[in-house]
Amino acid sequence: LGTATPLQHSKHQDAGSFDFIIAGGGTAGLALAARLTEDGTHSVLVLEAGLRPDTVALYQTPGADLQVPGSPIDWAFSTLPQPGLNGRQLIYNQGRCLGGSSSINGLAYTRGSSSIYNLWASLGNNGWSWEKVFPYFKKSTTFNPPSAKNVTAQDYDVSLYSDGPVQLAYPPYVYAYPGSEAFVESLSALGLPKVEDLNGGTNIGVKHEPFTMDNRYRRSSSYDSYYMQARDRPNLKVLEMSPVQQVILEKAGDTVVASGVVYTDYASGQTLNATAKKEVILSTGALKTPQLLMLSGIGPAETLEKVGVQPYVINENVGKNLQDHIYFSVIAEADPSISYSSLYQDYSKLQQATREYKEAKGPLTAPVGLAFGFEKISSDTLNSIGASALTALNRSDQAHVEYLYETIYYPNLPTPYYSSKEYNTSYVSFTAAILAPTSRGTVSALSNSLSDPPQIDPQYYTTPEDRALAIYSFKALRKLLAEFATHNFTIGPNNGEVAPGPNVQSDEEILDYIRETAAPVWHASGTCAMLPREKGGVVDEKLRLYGVQRLRVVDASVFPVIPDAHTMAPTYVVAEMAAGIIKGEYRS
Ligand SMILES: Cc1cc2nc3c(=O)[nH]c(=O)nc-3n(C[C@H](O)[C@H](O)[C@H](O)COP(=O)(O)OP(=O)(O)OC[C@H]3O[C@@H](n4cnc5c(N)ncnc54)[C@H](O)[C@@H]3O)c2cc1C
Q1: pLDDT digits (tens, 9 = 90+) for 443-488
Q2: ipTM associated with this complex
Q3: Binding site for FAD, residues?
Q4: Which of 17, 284, 335, 388 suits a disulfide with 383, CB 3.0-4.6 Å?
Q5: What are the domain boundaries of the chain?
Q6: What is the CB < 6 Å shell around ligand 1?
Q7: Where are the alpha helices (DSSP H) in 308-452?
Q8: According to its UniProt record, which residues of this chain constitute the active site (predicted)?
Q9: pTM over 0.90
Q10: CATH class in words for 68-94+171-219+323-520
């Protein structure tokens, strides 16, 4: 690289050199760092923009999972006004701390259908079929058996887990389980089977949710799991409050090479350079990674010109292909014995629950979402509801809708359908998420500063298929509520339904309710897709960036197609796969 042209920022003070520099100490970043440092041959620097998660002590408490978003360890982005949501802008939470979103999320652990990974492989990604990724799912997890089997649908198949860093468990909390059990029974009555385990590649059926928590019911994020096991290694350096501002690119003839990063050290107030002897790896998440690439000179020509960044590699695919799951609820008034509502209305109850939690007991051992069911809709039905594109898109062999049981009024947003809630009234929510969205959004840069948030435009419900699945699943939620009401836990007319209520009946009324109340499931992915470049790709099957040497992306950005599941486990699998690929390439 004798004739290299340094980027504009490369004159800052040098903070040292490392074999690998990982931007972002989140879910994937810390998992990858732990794997790359385990045999002692590579030195790794992790630069994380946020703080340690225990800055917000509640982050470890499963029952406080809705209190942590919005705290200082959340980026709390917002979307552009969404045409499919009657112009609403949504707050978009993302972890801003070590552990990233695994430190603030809902703890639900799901892998999805084998067919999704087989689809990834068939799209041009050799080595990513279910058969190939499954060992890495297994390697990353340990399942802690329930101490007492209080309820049904809390089984698991021991052969699907090993002794990996991420701890999985069911909560011991039985108080809310009569409602959760009734939900499981009600979904079974609607044709969804109770299954032993959803994590073996067949993602259809009903279960109590397994959560990423240890046997004391404390959150097991990538910080608590991978990082805690690796933190004393001399070859691992992890810096918090150190946002990466830019990847340093050098040009030698036609070749562009990543040689390090520019980052800000908030503690000292300095802007520093760090050098990567082997590679720079971006793990800043599906919303920040495309923005960081753009601000480094890699992205769509028009955006780079608009924000005034020197172009290094023009790739129109950066920031495209944004996919997400979105959900909405039918909400019912419920017997207080099965609801968490009173916990947040009566602070003496919350104090009592906090005391119990210190003994690993009580309601705070469980997140507010307790059980879920995954439905694969038949091709005939997909055709009849106007979602036939899903059969043509090779997405017929997967779960299309997820049903969730939440022990509160959820989502708790002011909307035209929000009726003010009376003190001492309790609620449960029946929630549906669309798992096979055909809408695609974008992420872009608004300015040439990473301090500005990315411009997020998910385009929810902008395709007929997404709207058809939404209306279908809303009607299923009402059937589910009617079945649930036979267990005598709901209060009042219409099976206890308080939102939207009986005035909403026609498809148009249902769609309007959904548009006014839907909230993201925060599964943003796909914005630097692992695909052939001509098919929309940003990275190849080894997660290497097209057009740049020594630069990879390892986070949820690379999913070519969003799995029919919550996205934390698939993100861990991307990190584990990346570690295997990278170690293989640099074996001495
Ligand atoms: C509120 C919420 C609830 C969720 N619930 C669930 C659930 O129950 N189950 C499930 O499976 N999934 C859930 N998810 C989704 C899942 O957590 C994410 O898909 C997954 O964790 C994404 O991992 P990642 O590594 O791609 O990004 P992240 O884990 O978000 O990591 C990105 C990291 O990069 C850091 N960063 C960003 N920019 C910079 C920069 N310039 N320099 C340095 N660092 C930077 C961030 O601070 C962050 O730590 C939820 C997500 C959220 C936000």
Answers
A1: 999 999 988 999 999 999 999 999 999 999 999 999 999 999 999 9
A2: 1.00
A3: 244, 522-523
A4: 388
A5: 68-94+171-219+323-520
A6: 23-29, 47-50, 69, 93-97, 100-102, 104-108, 243-244, 283-286, 288, 292, 450, 522-523, 555-556, 566-569, 571
A7: 347-358, 379-385, 389-392
A8: 523, 566
A9: yes
A10: alpha beta
